[in-house]
Amino acid sequence: MNRAHLERRLGYRFRDEALLDQALTHRSAGHGHYERLEFLGDALLNFVVAQMLYKRCPELSEGDLTRMRAALVREETLGSVAQDLALADAVQLGGSALKSGVYRRRSVLADTVEALIGAVLLDADIPTATACVERWWGPRLEALPDPHSLKDPKTRLQEWLQGRSRPRPEYEVVEMTGPPHRQRFRVACVLGDDEVRAEGQGSSRRGAEQNAARAMLEQLDA
Residue 125: which pLDDT band, with cuts at 50, 70 and 90? Predict the structure, then answer.
């Protein structure tokens, strides 16, 4: 790892190099790993993103702000930030984890980003760590999605029905297949007032229900 190059990408130079090393150390490498820093960085990240959205989107409701924040701090977004910062080659792992390619998993890279936020906070202060988050997340704030598009299918279906004074849908498990540790669910979404029916499948009942609701929305839109 070229420390100077990494710090240029981060836009921050550490005074305590041990904090940077810790933020980049996976638990497979032994003691002094990043998990405590990750805890700290996660807390600050959620606050800073919430504050950014609150200031930037005065027209949004609490529910919309919550969904927007969830989209901006989820693993996929953190992994994208890690990619921008080229962290994959900087993470320090133990031998077995290195051979298995763990360092390229999005979850590990997401954890590393949160740990780096925590490390900057301890190395400097809240304003400095906040500035890092604002800089790393800036492009994502410029491309905010429509809050309605972030609602899950079951919520969107329920709101569609409520807006038309129709009763809530019912979800029925039609079939469960596979061994207990790898089950598949097939669920039907039924509208009782006109007997419209749609089905969805998933590796969990909740996932199958969401897919059934999505299929129902497609029927209703059609």
Answer: very high
From the list 38, 111, 114, 123, the catalytic residue is 114
* Residues 137 and 151: beta-carbon distance below 8 Å: no
Annotation says 114 is catalytic = yes
Please state whether 91 falls in left (phi above 0), alpha (psi between -120 and 50) or beta: beta
- In three-state secondary structure terms, 199 is strand
Considering the entire predicted model, what is its pTM?
Answer: 0.71
Domains and CATH numbers, the chain: 3-144 (1.10.1520.10), 153-221 (3.30.160.20)
Instruction: Report the distance separating Cα 64 and Cα 57, nearest Å.
Output: 10
Quote the DSSP letter at residue 16.
Answer: S
- Which percentage of the chain shows pLDDT scores above 70? 95
Neighbours of 144 (CB within 10 A): 15
From the candidates 7, 17, 35, 42, give the one annotated as an active-site residue. Answer: 42
**Using 50, 70 and 90 to split pLDDT, how confident is the model at 1?**
low
Show Cβ contacts of residue 112 under 8 Å, excluding neighbours closer than 6 positions. Answer: 23, 24, 34, 38, 82, 87, 90, 91
Rounded Cα–Cα distance for residues 121 and 128 (Å): 7
Q: Any catalytic annotation for residue 16?
A: no
pLDDT at 82 over 90: yes
